[in-house]
């Protein structure tokens, strides 16, 4: 009988290999964060520019001091409130941190993921696991083990299958390295949740914000062009070649290549989003039409990802 996946994963990581593993947000492409060769291989497999930093995943908040220095009280408040969970903190990096992980920056992104298999792996491995989302650069993030296998094939040594991800979109990123909290990437944890934990609204991203590939204009992109449209723009834009994600059923007589009815619950919408976009991308012969979600609370991160997917 082959050893269980977590034990095999620890062996692979220890010898510098790459392991894709589930988190509550999306699957990660993991390597030993202290091993330069392993980190270099993550960048190669992802096809990601070397100056885009990776997130270091750790098994417990008590390990933060190994990766970050000058940790402000707000970091402890956020860690206490949201870890394990879908939140990444950007902090000044500890001097011992491998510069490849941080893309040459003086800061490091760290999170404790809220997924039992990820935590089991991190705790068994002991060290930090550097992991971007387990997809090629600029493509849709994977939310199932099958997505990872289809994207990365044999470029990854092992894929741990933990079923579909519960959150479905990438973690919220908060920068605490420059004083006031800055929201670099919205996620399941929203600005209001952060404000409640630290007693101040996080500032939106500005020009001085550190580089983050998730914040490039075109990112999370399917192969076919994606258009965000209002309900009234949808029908005139529709052709036989379109694949549609909308809040209503297809009107009688509509002839789309595919029509999927979206959930009106933002958490469920986010959970299904990337898997749906993959299906729509396969079905579409031309454009993917997505009905613009509302602006209300809970939809911020979804609008962010859809806007980037449309941004070409
Ligand atoms: O939910 C997630 O965060 C997933 C799972 C696997 O943990 N990971 C993920 O990784 O989305 P990735 O590499 O696809 O996106 C991480 C984002 C990138 O935009 C990266 O630039 C940013 O985090 N980031 C990491 N370290 C940073 C730092 N020191 N300063 C600014 N941004 C940083
Ligand atoms: Mg990514």
Give an account of the 3D structure.
The chain is an alpha/beta fold. It has 2 domains: 4-204, DHBP synthase, CATH 3.90.870; 226-310, no CATH class. The chain is 30% helix and 17% strand. It has helices spanning 5-14, 36-46, 73-82, 116-125, 145-152, 191-198, 231-237, 266-283, 300-310, and strands spanning 19-21, 28-32, 55-57, 87-92, 107-111, 129-130, 158-159, 172-175, 182-185, 203-204, 226-229, 243-246, 258-261, 288-291. The strands form 2 sheets. The protein has a 10-stranded mixed beta sheet with strand order 7-1-2-6-3-5-4-8-9-10, with helices on both faces. A 4-stranded parallel beta sheet has the order 11-14-12-13. A hairpin with a 6-residue loop joins strand 8 and strand 9. The longest helix has 18 residues, at 266-283. It starts with a helix and ends with a helix. It binds threonylcarbamoyladenylate and magnesium ion.
Write the layout of secondary structure elements.
Elements: H1 5-14, E1 19-21, E2 28-32, H2 36-46, E3 55-57, H3 73-82, E4 87-92, E5 107-111, H4 116-125, E6 129-130, H5 145-152, E7 158-159, E8 172-175, E9 182-185, H6 191-198, E10 203-204, E11 226-229, H7 231-237, E12 243-246, E13 258-261, H8 266-283, E14 288-291, H9 300-310
Parallel strand pairs: 1-7, 3-5, 4-8, 9-10, 11-14, 12-13, 12-14
Antiparallel strand pairs: 1-2, 2-6, 3-6, 4-5, 8-9
Helix pairs in contact: 1-4
The chain binds threonylcarbamoyladenylate and magnesium ion.
Magnesium ion (MG) is lined by residues 132-133, 141, 214.
